Fold this sequence. Notes:
Strand order of the largest sheet: 2-1-5-4-3
Structural class: alpha+beta
Number of domains: 1
Amino acid sequence: MKNSLFAFSVILCVSPAVFAADGFATAKEAEALVARAAKAVATDRATVFKEITAKDKKWIDRDLYPVVYDLNGKCVAHGQNEKQVGKDLIDLADADGKEFIKERVQLAKSKGKFWQDYKFTDPLTKKVLPKSAYCEKTADLIVCAGIYKR
Length: 150
């Protein structure tokens, strides 16, 4: 029994398919969260917006959280910063001056599903880090979740 438990523990510790090696969210997890959030938003957007912004545990996982914008760059739900909700963020720029929301809106309109690189404050370390967000356009909304490049 001890050997079986040890073997299972080793598999969990070294398998990237189960967990990210460093305990942070992975690209596959971001894609899965966005797909789940986009589906839920299509069913009951008001409830899902409230849950995301209230940091409901079904939407927040370590450093992974969804953000939802309308196609004009207005934030309608944010899994880490409720002060962003209701704000027009179209001109928001990252630490390098990149207007990433404007770009996000353009990519959503032209591609539908995409990855986007920018810089953002990590909710765990409070440091500005490179980040990649996976986004999907669903109806008149853009649902995103990102991973920090550590």
